[in-house]
Amino acid sequence: MHKRISPHGDYDHAGNALSILENIEVENILLNSNGYNSLEREIASLYSHKIVSSYISDFFDMKKYEFISTDENESSIILQIRIFQMSFLFMGDATISEEKMLLHENISSDVIKLGHHGSKTSSDKSFLEKVQPSYAIISAGKNNRYHHPSKETIQKLEELAIPYYETSIFHTMWFKICQKNQKFYTY
Q: Of 187, 120, 169, 113, nearest to 148 (Cα)?
């Protein structure tokens, strides 16, 4: 059984959700608590019995941060997940203002999926210093119209000596995590 997490309802995050839900058995769906857009309303009407506000697992620990805003990006779900000894921080489309609200939290993580596709509106240097990731993942399409990731974000990562991997170059990245070790793969 799979879990489906949609940080927010913009097409670049949830556009294929209905296809996934029709073709893969999904146990739970986690949507943000902000008002739903048309796609999220359709998902909620078809799969209301699978929507949860939180999730508890024997396999991993999950902490959810959520901010309510009229801006879809600023109301993205932010998740910190720990599997054995590794922690992952998924920033959705969060901006610098949400990052600053998290500075008082224990957000240190081995891997961060940068907010808002590595745009200059996210990945503040003080935030990256607090997270102290060993890897940064940037999810952005090749030759996208917004030119993500931004040069400013790449510069911050390089200044902080944080290795980064872009989906526009590596396409697929995955971690194999066992109790005593882990491996990172790209293709």
A: 120
Helix (H, G, I), strand (E, B) or coil at 63: strand
Domain of residue 30: give its range. 1-54
Listed in sequence order, the residues at least 6 apart from 171 whose beta carbon sits closer than 8 Å to its beta carbon are 186, 187
Average pLDDT over residues 32-46: 75
- Could you tell me if 76 and 100 are in contact, meaning their C-beta atoms sit under 8 angstroms apart? no
Residues 41 and 115 in one domain: no
What tens digit of pLDDT does each residue of 55-112 get? 667 667 888 787 766 666 566 788 899 988 899 999 988 899 999 999 999 999 999 9
**Do 120 and 176 share a domain, yes or no?**
yes
Token pair, residue 21, equals 């839900």
Q: Can you give the pTM of this predicted structure?
A: 0.79
Any idea which residue has 């990945």 for tokens?
123
Measured distance CA(117)–CA(132) in Å, rounded:
19
Q: For 4-22, what is the mean pLDDT?
A: 61
